[in-house]
Amino acid sequence: MSKYDCLKLENQLCFPLYACSKAVTRHYKPLLDEFDLTYTQYITMMAMWERKSASVKDIGECLYLDSGTLTPVINKLESKGYIEKHRSNDDARGVVVTVTDAGMKLRDKMVKVPTSMGGCVDLSEKEAQELYRLLYKILGHFDEIDNIE
Known about the structure:
Helix content: 55-70%
Radius of gyration: 18 Å
C-alpha cells in the first residue's frame, strides 16, 4: 500500500458525497424551473413552510448557509412575494422573515416535487432512511467540531 493511496478518489468518502450532491441538485433543476426557483430558494422555502416565521440567523443554521449566501436568496424570495422581512422586535440588528400567503400557496403547488425526485433515487425506503441517518450523523459531528473551535 502506497502512502499516496489516501489521495485516490476511490478512497475518498467526500468525493461521492460531492458528486451525488451535484447530481441531485441537477435533477431538481427542471422540477424547480417550473416555479422559477433555485435549489437554495427551494430549501429556504421548505424551512419557511415549517416555521412560518424565523430569524435569518435561525434559517441559516437550519440550512447550513452563511448570511452571505442566504441574504441574496431571501431578497430574491421577497421580490417574488413569497416572504417578507422585518426588523426583530427583540433585537434591532436582527431580521425576521415571515412566509406570505403567496408563499404558502406555493407550497400546495410544490408538493409534487419530492415525489418526482424520489423516482430519481434508486433506494429502498430502508436504505433511504439509513442514508439520511448517516448523513445527519456526519453533519452532527461537524457541528460538534465547529462548536469546539
